[in-house]
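[job 0412] stage=complex_fold ligand=guanosine-5'-triphosphate status=START
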Amino acid sequence: MSDTREESINAGRLLVVGTQGGGKTALVTKLAARTDQSMSYEEDFGGTIETEYLRLSFDEGRFFSLLLPVGGQEKWQKLRERFGSTAEGMIIVLDSCTKKFWVNSLSQATSISSFLPYDNYPIAPVVTKRDLNEIIRKEIDNFAQTIIDGLEQAKTSPIVYYSRGFRITERKVELLGEIVPFTILEQIIINSLESKYFTGLVPGNAQKGKVLLPGFSLVNCRILGRALTQELCTTTEGDQMEILSLLNDMRPSMLELDTNWVDLLQKYPKAGAEPQVNINDLSLEVIQDTILNNLLASDADISDFVSKLGTLNPKTGWRVSGYEHISIFEDEGLGSAATLIRKMMVDVKESVRVDKFNVFNPIEELF
Ligand SMILES: Nc1nc2c(ncn2[C@@H]2O[C@H](COP(=O)(O)OP(=O)(O)OP(=O)(O)O)[C@@H](O)[C@H]2O)c(=O)[nH]1
Ligand SMILES: [Mg+2]
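[job 0412] stage=complex_fold status=DONE, emitting structure tokens
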């Protein structure tokens, strides 16, 4: 005879962490939409905050898990800690197309870990945007050439961008020489990719415009643009973790947000001077290699990350429930993520309270 009491149990209030724009809201909304048709995900340049759990049902509603994709920007750290302290498990979302930002996603999880004194605490990395990773690999020659064309154009004509504020304002900036600062290179890359891969854009609106490269949203264009800029620029000083935090502060480009490196240094004082690059050093090969090797995750990168996570158990109490590399646009991927979450609900019951945890620096320990 089955135990009917078990059938209405909720197990699994799961916090979903990860860098801004990594795909937390999109993933959770699409998962919730599998059982609640009223849910839908909307593109937005601002990013989300999120303070309410979304429900994901299993087995015709007899079991359910609550997922909170708490905002990934740095400024929501206190919120993450607050909600994290009652979470029964954690999903770490990693963007398949910007692997250099994974350390931020992980540090969000580790910074909450000290509030969670459990052994066998279930965690699961979910690597998103698998479709985009594959499509950029196929498109890499055109993709890199587009950026090279954008760099050439910037040498002779002004770089136009739309600054967000009370109103969206068109602004222009010109190159002052061959040494280009981070902020400007970021805008050149975004502009070049936008002009090739989108039509009918409406400044400031992430939902308008037609996407010509499937899966390459305007937000993805910005996140990837920032990661690529970071990889192409050289930094002579500055704390790596602090630079990554600075980069995880905003979703639009720095110019679009009307901010600059010096202003951001007030929040991230150890990030050092603005990185820069000699534009003449940026060849087609350099851009291709940087995207392929430094940004797009491979299967080996993912399994390496997962096995490193496994080794953290003595410090964090974490137990890796499993992992997935998925696209939210494919039913198969969403199905696998749902199965993983269902497994976490079982694993939650095996976590036990203990008293042995401390905070640690993931970049020193793992990367
Ligand atoms: N191609 C592709 N794009 C994805 C996938 N998952 C998410 N995205 C896109 O990634 C962008 C950011 O997704 P969000 O879910 O808003 O990111 P988030 O992690 O909630 O970001 P914050 O709210 O800023 O913390 C959006 O443009 C999504 O459409 C995926 O599997 N494939
Ligand atoms: Mg979000």
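The pocket of guanosine-5'-triphosphate (ligand 1) is lined by residues 18, 20-26, 43, 47-48, 69, 71-73, 128-129, 131-132, 215, 217, 219-220, 251, 327-329 (CB under 6 Å).
[job 0412] exit 0
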